[in-house]
Structure formats: structure tokens, C-alpha cells
Amino acid sequence: MKARNFDKTFDAGGDVSKALDLSKARRPAQEQKRVNVDFPVWMVQMLDREARRLGVPRQSLIKILIAQHLEKPGA
Fold it and tell me: Is residue 11 part of a domain?
């Protein structure tokens, strides 16, 4: 599909997914790197309690909390 047709189809709300090769798609500045962190048992219990309350996995909660802290001015 030519770029002009792709743009027209996309702008009209059409499905352009078949024209894309998503196998090599990347999210800039969103690459993942695995890290291991040891937490005290009491902290894991509190994280699990809060994650259940919010309905999210523990890992997601940890990412949210760290991101919120890092986005604060002066962090």
C-alpha cells in the first residue's frame, strides 16, 4: 500500500493493520530491562494488599509507584 493510500485509509478510520509489519515495531524510550529487587516480607504484603485493592498485578503497582516518585519535581 502506498503512503498516500495508507494515510487516506487511516484518516478515514479504516483498518491499516494488514499493511503494517509489527514484528519489528519498537516503542522509543520504552524498552524493557529486567531488574531484581529484594523487598522485606512486610513490604511485599503491603504491596499485595494495595495491588488487590486496585485490581492490578504487584509488578504494575511497583512500576506505578516508582514512576510517580520519579516524576515529582526534585526527584
Answer: no
Report yes or no on 1 lying in a domain.
Answer: no
30 occurs within a structural domain = no
Domain count for the chain, please give it: 1
Residue 20 in grid coordinates = 503494517
Q: What is the pLDDT of residue 56?
A: 95
Is 74's pLDDT higher than 80?
no
What are 6-32's pLDDT values in tens digits? Answer: 899 999 999 988 888 888 888 787 888
Q: Which domain holds residue 54?
A: 35-75
How is the chain split among helix, strand and coil, in percent rounded to 5? 55, 0, 45
